[in-house]
């Protein structure tokens, strides 16, 4: 479990394909703090450390993870947002983030607004997906590339959903939001509480 408060960015130094899996080797931003089997969120995707060599560590993404997320689009040299799992007894500064990305979204607008940054994203939205909680509500929580954010201007038009977020300068500078432009594909995870409520409501209707 994560909080959506990104600790830093990790640099992708090598990508290896093995059958339908991909092994990502990244430069370790946490010094000597990592261990085998540790869970780390990469752009919001919970992955397990499988190898450590000096300041490098390796994680593996399976086919389903690659299909649902933007990890399959990563190239050597890219930067990903990383966060270690929450420690029990610590402060929950963001919101409850599972690291289970729901789908990909596309940036349709990115602009600076008097010192902060505004982004708008588009994602697939069907009635079935909405009943599973794959939607946003105004002032609710949403996770974009592993960053816990407040949703604003949510909307659904046809088979597309939309949500906007505003980023303070610190977040812009210290996450890979600074590389997001129109057309950039990001990972989106909807609020787990909303998923439970939506699923319960859908079951009651049957």
Structure summary:
The chain is α+β, with helices and mostly antiparallel strands.
- The geometry reads as globular
Query: Looking across the biggest beta sheet, what order are the strands in?
Result: 10-9-13-7-8-12-11
The portion of residues assigned to helices is 10-25%
Number of E strands: 13
Taking pLDDT < 50 over at least 5 consecutive residues as the criterion, the unreliable ranges are none
Instruction: Give the DSSP E fraction (strand runs of 2 or more residues).
Output: 35-45%
**Mean residue pLDDT:** 93
Distance between the termini: 32 Å
Q: How do the helices and strands follow one another from N- to C-terminus?
A: EEEEEHEEEHEEEEHEH
The largest pleated sheet is described as:
7 strands, antiparallel
- SSE-based structural type: alpha+beta
Number of helical regions: 4
Specify Rg, calculated over alpha carbons: 17 Å
Would you spell out the secondary-structure blueprint of this structure?
Elements: E1 8-18, E2 21-27, E3 39-42, E4 45-53, E5 56-61, H1 63-68, E6 79-84, E7 103-113, E8 116-124, H2 127-131, E9 141-144, E10 147-150, E11 152-157, E12 160-167, H3 169-174, E13 185-190, H4 192-205
Antiparallel strand pairs: 1-2, 1-6, 2-5, 3-4, 3-6, 4-5, 7-8, 7-13, 8-12, 9-10, 9-13, 11-12
Description:
With 206 residues, this protein is of the alpha+beta class. It contains 4 helices and 13 strands. A 7-stranded antiparallel β-sheet has the order 10-9-13-7-8-12-11. The chain is 15% helix and 44% strand. The longest helix is centred in the C-terminal third of the chain and has 14 residues, at 192-205. The two termini are 32 Å apart.
């Amino acid at each position: 479990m994560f909080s959506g408060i990104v600790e830093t960015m990790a640099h992708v130094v090598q990508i290896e394909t093995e059958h339908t899996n991909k092994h990502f080797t990244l430069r370790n931003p946490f010094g000597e703090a990592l261990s085998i089997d540790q869970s780390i969120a990469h752009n919001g995707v919970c992955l397990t450390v499988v190898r450590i060599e000096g300041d490098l560590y390796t994680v593996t993404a399976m086919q389903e993870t690659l299909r649902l997320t933007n990890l399959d689009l990563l190239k050597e040299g890219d930067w990903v947002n990383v966060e270690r799992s929450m420690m029990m007894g610590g402060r929950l500064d963001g919101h409850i983030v599972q690291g289970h990305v729901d789908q990909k979204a596309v940036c349709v607008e990115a602009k600076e607004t008097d010192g902060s940054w505004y982004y708008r994203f588009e994602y697939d939205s069907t009635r079935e997906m909405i009943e599973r909680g794959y939607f946003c509500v105004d002032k609710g929580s949403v996770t974009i590339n592993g960053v816990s954010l407040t949703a604003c201007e949510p909307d659904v038009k046809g088979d597309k959903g939309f949500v906007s977020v505003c980023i303070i300068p610190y977040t812009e500078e210290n996450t890979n939001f600074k590389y997001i432009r129109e057309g950039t594909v990001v990972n989106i995870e909807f609020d787990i509480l909303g998923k439970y409520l939506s699923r319960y409501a859908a079951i009651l209707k049957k």
